[in-house]
Amino acid sequence: MKCPFGVVVIGKDRKIRWAKEAACTIAAVDDLATIVGRRCAEFLCPDEQCDCPVLDHGREVNNAVSILRRYDGSLIPILRNERRSLKMSRCRNGRLHHQTDQSQ
User: Fold this and answer.
1) Is 77 helix (H, G, I), strand (E, B) or coil?
2) What is the pTM of this model?
3) What gap in Å lies between CA 43 and CA 66, rounded to an integer?
4) Residue 66: how many CA atoms within 13 Å on its side-chain side?
5) For 52, which DSSP code?
6) E strands, 33-85, in order
7) Taking a C-beta distance cutoff of 8 angstroms, is the pair 48, 35 a contact?
8) Measured between alpha carbons, how far is 79 from 67 in angstroms, rounded to an integer?
9) What residues have CB less than 8 Å from 88, skipping those under 6 apart?
10) What is the pLDDT of residues 40-68, one digit of tens each?
């Protein structure tokens, strides 16, 4: 079963590392390659480029209304949840897996 919500993995360098297919649809991009490696502020939270609640202040964001900038430049409201609790890495077979980061 596919979940109808977007998931994006962002590195500490503020670059998008991975996105779920639904996130690509919401951001109006054709494929993952269009957004991977781009700075998160290009699509997510355009007003918080240097004031990220997670990366700059170490807080979690739960059910916050925010604005997403789509690839075509249009802005849409989204419901946002963010946490800094997962470490992502690649297995040899290329699949992403995670482990809980107990240090956060």
Assistant:
1) strand
2) 0.71
3) 12
4) 20
5) -
6) 61-69, 75-82
7) no
8) 8
9) 9, 17, 18, 96, 97, 98
10) 888 777 666 678 878 888 888 888 888 88
